[in-house]
Structure formats: C-alpha cells, structure tokens
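Exercise 7.
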Amino acid sequence: MRIGRFQADGEARIGRFEADTVTDVSSEFDDFQDALSRPDDAADADGGSFDRAEITHLPPTTDRNTVFCAALNYEAHAEESDIEVPEWPLVFMKLPRTLVGHREPISYHTRVTEEIDYEAELAAVIGEPARHVDLDEALDYVAGYTILNDTSARDLQLGLQVGDDEMLDWFSGKTMQSTTPVGPSVVVDEIDDPQDLHIASRVDGETMQDDNTGMMIRTVADLVSFVSSRVRLEPGDIIATGTPEGVGTFQDIKLEPGETVEIEVEGIGTLVNTVEEVED
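Solution. The predicted structure, written as tokens, is:
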C-alpha cells in the first residue's frame, strides 16, 4: 500500500495512491502523522477518487517534521568526494520549506547559485515515536519508504573559504527553498529488506547513478538508531540514507533549466521533477 499527501480542489488531503488514481482517506485520520502511525486504516477508506494526473503531489511529511540526511554513506561516493568516511554517521537536516512534491519544479535563484546537482536517495519515514532505539528494533519504527532527491547547490556547499581553509556549508548548499523533491508517496509493508534495492538517477533520460542500497556503509537500521540517540524521532520524520557515486559535480555536470531529473528506487517507483530557474 502507498499513502501520501496531495492537493485537489484547493485542499490538502491524505491519500491512498494507486497506479492512475488516488483515493482520499483524510476522514480516517487526525492528520498525516496519525496516518503514518496506523497506515493499515487507510486500506479500506474511501472519500472519493481523483485522477493522479490532475492532482498536486505534496511531500509525504508535515511542516512539523524534520528531514535528517546522511552524508557520505556509500563508500564509492565518499571516494569520489575525496573525503574520509567519518567515525559515526554524518547527518544534517533540511527545513520543511525546502521540500517539494513529485512533479513539482526544483526552483533555484540564479542570483544565489549557478551549480545545482542531483542525489538519488532512499528515505525511511518514521511511523511512531523513537528514542534511544536498539539496532535490532530500529526498523520496527519505520512506517515505510519513499524517495528523496538531495538536490545540492555545489558552488555554495563546496565554495566556502575561511582563512586558509575550505569548509562545507551544509545550510547554503542543502537547504534552499523549494529545491528538495520527496515522494511520490510512502510505500508501506511492501519492502522486506531496504538494503537490497536498486537505486538510480537519470537526467533527461541519461543514467547518472546506478547502484544498490546494499552498498550503504550504515544501514537504514543503523541510521534510525543513531538519530534516535541524538533526538526523539516523531511520526512523519524522514531519514534520507545518502547517495551512491555518480553525482554531477564530480563529472563536471550541473543541472540546467528545463532538464528533468528522475530518481528511481526499486519497489517504490520514480520521483520526477523538472529544474526551474527563478530570477525574481
């Protein structure tokens, strides 16, 4: 089953997603966090159906939630970055206003950045509160999985000079308004092993990344346990698990206005967004 958020007739709704339609199940839940804590209740609800081609996909989380992102979590990506893998998971956060839904534009301001990059990532969506979770129980707190494109402004992330040292600017590079696609929905009870999924990215149909989540350094369970040791996780929080090798910056590639980025993860589907240049 796939649940998520969408907008139709000017109203934000909770939906059960199928191939061509989405069924409104909003009446069954107090909010989307509630839906993630008991997703099985969405199976038989029916508040009317909508054509998926005519709705607006919203990010499958809420503005009260946090997106945690693991950096350097594939060995080959760490090698192409020429950065040593840290002793424990390196995690940064994104603001809700950074997120956009499936088929919504990746919008960036040319007065701020000129080097936008893609990053294909499997993302775990939390289904119940989690604090100091043991590794062997960590996946019990995951409601399901979605896809995140950790779009990055490389000229800002990698271009900060402090004295004689170069620093990584995680905020500027990773948290710009309306630049991080998430979705299309949350896949519930269909993925038995999140460490054995094909993951790929394409730009205008050309494959850029092609790997398997089994190549992660820290597993989904590792990351859930780690983040919960630092802060209480809540239903709707997202943990993005890092990207494989093949990002644009190390191939002298940057995203251009009008290009379409597809992030595909086995068992979940494809997250599709087009790059849009904003000048105002």
